[in-house]
Design brief:
about 200 residues, alpha+beta, five-stranded antiparallel beta sheet, globular
Length: about 200
């Protein structure tokens, strides 16, 4: 419980530090955040993996939904492992962190937040990985993302017990995840971080 409280406080601090920097970009887009060394240090001491994205939207987009989907060997197991919405203004941030909860590392603590206009909405959940000796790889959507384009995959975390090694998802997967869903079959467990602006 204490670890969850520390993680929550760290995420709030990171959001507010990042929001104070200000951004001059006027175009509507979602992009990987350019974190300061201090923000990276805060995240790295509280989570094994983190993703932070900045967004800039048009005025008519007033709500953001963030979700995390879980797949096992390519089959969708849970489309709302994390699922929440928040009112937004024209700019803000999305953050997603993953931490192991026990010494074997097969229990994960997932934490996601949306920060916009000095308000932070947070959702968290726990989940278990099948097996104990799994390797992981992470990936971020390399494509420029337009908030008005509908649901988008922002990032992936992939786990496999295959001793032969593994690689992250190809860039084309992020362009149309539904079309290339077969790529997820190569992993024991996959988590996809998604966002949709409305």
């Amino acid at each position: 419980m204490r670890k969850a409280l520390i993680l929550s406080m760290s995420i709030f601090i990171t959001f507010f530090l990042h929001a104070c920097q200000g951004n001059t970009t006027e175009s509507s887009k979602v992009l990987e955040a350019d974190l300061t060394g201090r923000e990276e240090a805060i995240l790295s001491t509280t989570a094994e993996q983190s993703f932070v994205f900045d967004f800039h939207t048009d005025e008519e987009l007033e709500e953001l939904t963030v979700s995390v989907e879980r797949y096992e060997s390519g089959e969708l197991i849970d489309d709302k492992l994390i699922y929440f919405s928040a009112e937004i203004q024209e700019e803000g941030s999305i953050i997603f962190t993953v931490s192991g909860m026990n010494s074997s590392g097969n229990r994960l603590f997932l934490h996601s937040g949306i920060g916009s206009n000095n308000v932070v909405s947070v959702s968290r959940n726990t989940t278990a990985l099948p097996g104990e000796n799994v390797s992981s790889v992470w990936g971020i959507n390399p494509n420029e993302k337009d908030p008005a384009s509908g649901e988008m995959v922002l990032a992936s975390i992939l786990y496999s017990s295959d001793e032969g090694g593994m690689s992250s998802l190809p860039d084309y997967f992020y362009e149309d995840a539904d079309e290339h869903a077969e790529e997820l079959e190569d992993y024991d467990t996959a988590f996809l971080l998604k966002a949709e602006f409305k």
